[in-house]
Predict the 3D structure of the following.
Amino acid sequence: MLKSNNEILVVDPRFSVLGDEHVLGERPSIVEEHHQQVEAIALAGSVPLDVRVAFDRARNVFVYAWYCYELLVVCELQAFAALELALRTRLHRSHSIKEAGLHLLFSRAVRKELLPGLDKHRFDELIAVRNKLAHGHLEIHTPKMALELLSRCAAIIDQLFPTGDVDCAG
């Protein structure tokens, strides 16, 4: 439901009634703490600027989810978009893959040994979450789950563009 004008900057009440802290981890009590949680998830490596911008969109959406809980879905979708852009950018040097989807991009990156140690189960799990979100589903993850997804995407992006790898920076 669209928030009214006078509720735009009111904390979404779901942040205060989320439930057991053992399930959710540390629950922020103020927006600054909420911001600190996502600020800690940043790209390292030699990640190209356009990928950084796309990933920071996801982090910013997470911050604004403090006011509209449903934005967590948008945050996660944008994290996947940044990941797909990173894969496409990293693989682009060898062949044109403009039409390849996330699954095919992942497969090519694994085949080219750009993601050593990527667990097949985790790969399938990420694709399943992304597809569920992208193809319409009412499920909204908790902030902790959104942060975990952001962290996983950041780790994969960083692996694609290791620090000091000038050839990757595009």
